[in-house]
């Protein structure tokens, strides 16, 4: 069985539907994975690119971005690097006024039981060290 790496634009075309030909290609690829004909893999980097493109290029608000990202995380037919950390990072992102990458780093730090968190970011430190 073939394994495909799925890049940012395939997810975006499927979610945004702003290019019919690319949407159709993405739809076909994802359906092949749903049907068990192929495997799909992607990375944390792609996930953050999706976040960045939705927020900066498409000017989507936090609520819409979060909804799109949760849809991707629910795609159990796509292997997503560090999915568990991303799921928790989305919860932190929804709750606090932080960038998603900061939320990811907070969850990564906690999940890996690291001893110290070196950051000058006051918002991050406030959340990490609140009583």
Automatic annotation (TrEMBL):
InterPro entries: PIN-like_dom_sf (IPR029060), PIN_dom (IPR002716), PINc/VapC_TA (IPR052106). The chain crosses the membrane at residues 38-58. Residues 5-127 form the PIN domain. Keywords: Membrane, Transmembrane, Transmembrane helix. Pfam families: PIN. The keyword Glycosyltransferase does not apply. The keyword Transmembrane helix applies. This is PIN domain-containing protein. It comes from Candidatus Roizmanbacteria bacterium CG10_big_fil_rev_8_21_14_0_10_36_26. The lineage of its organism: Bacteria, Candidatus Roizmaniibacteriota.
């Amino acid at each position: 069985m073939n394994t495909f790496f799925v890049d940012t634009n395939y997810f975006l075309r499927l979610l945004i539907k702003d290019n019919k030909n690319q949407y159709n290609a993405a739809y076909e690829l994802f359906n092949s994975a749903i049907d068990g004909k192929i495997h799909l893999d992607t990375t944390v980097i792609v996930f953050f690119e999706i976040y960045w493109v939705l927020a900066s290029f498409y000017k989507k608000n936090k609520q819409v971005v979060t909804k799109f990202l949760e849809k991707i995380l629910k795609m159990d037919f796509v292997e997503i690097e560090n999915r568990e950390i991303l799921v928790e990072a989305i919860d932190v992102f929804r709750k606090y006024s932080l960038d998603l990458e900061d939320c990811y780093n907070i969850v990564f730090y906690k999940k890996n039981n690291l001893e110290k968190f070196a950051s000058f970011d006051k918002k991050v430190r406030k959340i990490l060290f609140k009583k």
